[in-house]
Amino acid sequence: MNLIDGMWLPGDHLIQNRNPSDQSDLIGHYAAGTASDVDRAAQAASAALPDWQAKGPLARAELLDRIARRIDEEAAVIGRMLAREEGKILPEAIAEVRRAAQVFRFFAGEALRLPGEAIASVRPGVDVEVMREAVGVVGLITPWNFPAAIPAWKIAPALAYGNAVVLKPAELVPGTAHLLARIIHEEGCPPGIFNLVMGPGSVVGQAMVEHPLIVAISFTGSVPTGRAIARAAALGMKRVQLEMGGKNPMVVMDDADLDTAVAACLNGAFFSTGQRCTASSRLIVQSGIHDAFVERLTKEMLALRVGPALAEDSQIGPVVSVAQLQVNLDYVALARTEGCEVIGGERLNGPTDGFFQRPALFLNASNRMRISREEIFGPCAAVIRVGDFDEALEVANDSEFGLSAGICTNSLTYARAFRHRVRAGMVMVNLPTAGVDFHVPFGGTKGSSFGPREQGRHAVEFYTTVKTAYCFAG
């Protein structure tokens, strides 16, 4: 069911939701909406805004705090749903749900800290106040790889700053979105202020981007879709916030601690089945440590236990869908065609009918190869050998993407130079490129991101607009 104007309503048709760990597990059938449903949601959101904003920041803070508490209470249930429909292993799924609760709790505090300024005027007797106000009705389009955390870090600031929301989750993960929507509704969100419209992006997403009452779009997903949204939103003069792809470099210098480097690359490249926009997909390794690093990483990668998301001994779950699995396997074949030695990468037979793939390393890669330039979004990493720091930095920056970048080194000189000179929105030193805190800005440069940052206090830049008020005291 879709949630529109505080009511659970059927859609135009139903979408079948199956478990990527086990295709015999039918999770359920979920409503797919239409452009008419988007219109109804947008109309309801616009009508509900004045009363919602009049309630003031304390009411918004208390609502978000209640939502956070309920998400924590139901973390095991929501996490199990997330693991079943997305394929993330259960401990990772539950941790993601708890992060969603942390996001709501953080923005409960931010609702009471909406910034403003009192500025002295250049004219005697005149006071100047700079205020922030909600932008209005915002459309949120979220991906399948983090079906709890990413909706949370869009919904929470939108509500905290007094906006109304129309959410369209990815078709592959309707169950998690439905559970989050139920909590938001049951914890007292006013009718019309939060709306859930599920369905295909070509229908629901397009209707959101084109609707005149939806004044802002926050999107996380692929580069082609993000660019199409930007073009369409420009016609309607909508503000946009786009988080798109990544081809993230992890540099390993000769002086790096080998244990630290291998652990960071193993986590960054392969955990969550490599289905993270911040994954380490290019491992740029200096010649002196290259062979030892590859030997150790290969051994630990091949030892990773791939299996069903709910199995206690699984370390890597399935690929999210058969279509994504085929994309991954096509890139494995391409790596061989381009001249790489491929370790792993094959489809695996599991104990259930699932989309299992062994993680893959592409050795002897160059940064000119397609497998080093195109986002795969699977458990695949290219290893690129370099001679020195300057070459490593040049290769790291030679990409159309610029989301996250990392370096493993014991040199303060290298670490500082990399932090300042790499072209990425987030930089990690001796840490995986994937894995960020919930209270600081998230976003990248170049083709990875467009518009204001997500998360943390910087979220205010997207979800509010600035008003300057003058007052003559006489």
From TrEMBL:
Pfam families: Aldedh. InterPro entries: Ald_DH/histidinol_DH, Ald_DH_C, Ald_DH_CS_CYS, Ald_DH_CS_GLU, Ald_DH_N, Aldehyde_DH_dom. The active site is at residue 243. Residues 14-468 form the Aldehyde dehydrogenase domain. Keywords: Oxidoreductase. GO terms for molecular function: oxidoreductase activity, acting on the aldehyde or oxo group of donors, NAD or NADP as acceptor. It comes from the Bacteria. Belongs to the aldehyde dehydrogenase family. This is Aldehyde dehydrogenase. It comes from Gemmobacter aquaticus. The lineage of its organism: Bacteria, Pseudomonadati, Pseudomonadota, Alphaproteobacteria, Rhodobacterales.
